[in-house]
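Notebook B, p. 112. Complex prediction, attempt 2.
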Amino acid sequence: MDFLLLLISAGLVSGAAYGMIAMGFALIYKATGVVNFAQGELVMLTAYVAFSIAGAVDLGFWSLLAVTVPIAMAIGLTLERIFIRPMLGEPAFAIVMVTIGLAVILRGVTIMIWGPDPLDFAAGLSREVITLGPIPFYPAQLYAIGCLAILVGLAYGFLRYTRVGIAMRAVAANETAALLMGVSVKRIHAVAWSLSSAIAAVAGILFAANFKLGPDMWFQGLRSFPALILGGLDSLIGAAIGGLIIGVVETLAQGYLGQGLREIAGFVVIVVILMVRPYGLFGARDIERV
Amino acid sequence: MSALLALSNVQVLYDHTIEAVRDVSLEIEEGRIVALLGSNGAGKSTILKAISGILGQEDGEIVGGSIAFAGHDLRRASPASIVARGLVQVPEGRALFATLTVEENLVMGGYGLSRADTETGLEEVYSLFPRVRERRGQISGYLSGGEQQMVAIGRAIMAKPRLLMLDEPSLGLAPQIIDSIFDTIVGLNGSRGLTVLLVEQNAQLALSVASRGYIIENGRIVLDGMAETLRTNPDVQEFYLGFGTSGTRKSMRDVKHYKRRKRWLS
């Protein structure tokens, strides 16, 4: 029984990391209709930026976050302006190719600046074990789950109640009509990129604090893909829940079935779920009136 | 008297090659309802897209002529600045944000407005269309066609238009609903002097409310005049109002008399 609880809790922690990374994917996909293949690299880059900030000034977790997130947003805006804005109006496939190129560039830049060796990064969190009931946790693990919950709450409020958030959903629903209402689609795309980078920073810091900070961290972007598909590509909350499900399924498969099955388990889950629900758990269906 | 909206010799190309609209000139005076009539593919919607500045969405481009609204040149203006000047379009087929609720659609109509203005705007739309108030919390994609058209018009009203352009508001609606939609349009024109550019295939209906009409065919304006004159014109009666006497199909273009008349005028 303890073993099961231990697996589930470990699964929720890695699932929270998947969820946060997948939320970044979902936000850009929702607003721009493009899967940003550089999302994993954004997560890695912003984690390294946070590492350098933490090395220069001694900050607690929340102040580190407060400093890193605006920098991440500026990075996201800059990348959008340089690489994505000129592609506006081009086919989605061409833009996806640009994001793949961007991913390679970011990987190279990261290794150039911070070197190829993994680094130890505590992100201002202590490493004393906290015991909740029978299960021991590192603080970073609890922070990961907590931050996922906070991000879900913020994303829900943003998309439901703010004018820019509603405009983002409007652009997703009908871009031409959004233009006709005076919504600047360019600005909405830029906002999506900057907010997605902010989410990437939170995800990156917490992933690095929980696991490790290394130049292969970008691969977590691809690892989060099943979570994104499971949640339905364009649903932020779906991505978060998808992340948790995939995380738990993966650790359970690893614990009970064997080490090698961890990598496959997530993909098996999405194949099964997509057979039943082709739009994912929370994806938007096309509305058809009968 | 100078016109509120004036197009002169506008030419539109799609994909740099396909000429959709050629030498179109039209003028709309403040406070009037003007009808732009024509059959499928004549270029009516292209003209509206050119005015709203959204041709870029479909690889279209204004290559000649000028568009002026209240003295401002609109050819290089962004869609957002055109809306901000009070030139608002109700697009063809409603084009609601289907996944958003009715109220969210309306809020998007007043995207550039302050919070207080949004509230008064919503109240205004709800008093105009009581049915829309009942449906405010519903996902707009599931409304009936008539209700969607009301939301689409309400959404445009939210932007506080000086000139409202409607692209085939009667499309796919039951006659009774069309009547009530047109009553509303005429009402808005009468009560607050809203200028209206009405694009329609249904010439009879459009000419019954408009003061002036333009007829477009194959991307050219072939005829224009007061609505009354157009209604009694024998060619218009034959081609657009269904009073034809002969069984043979002719085209307005065969009527030499009208051909390219607008060109020498402008």
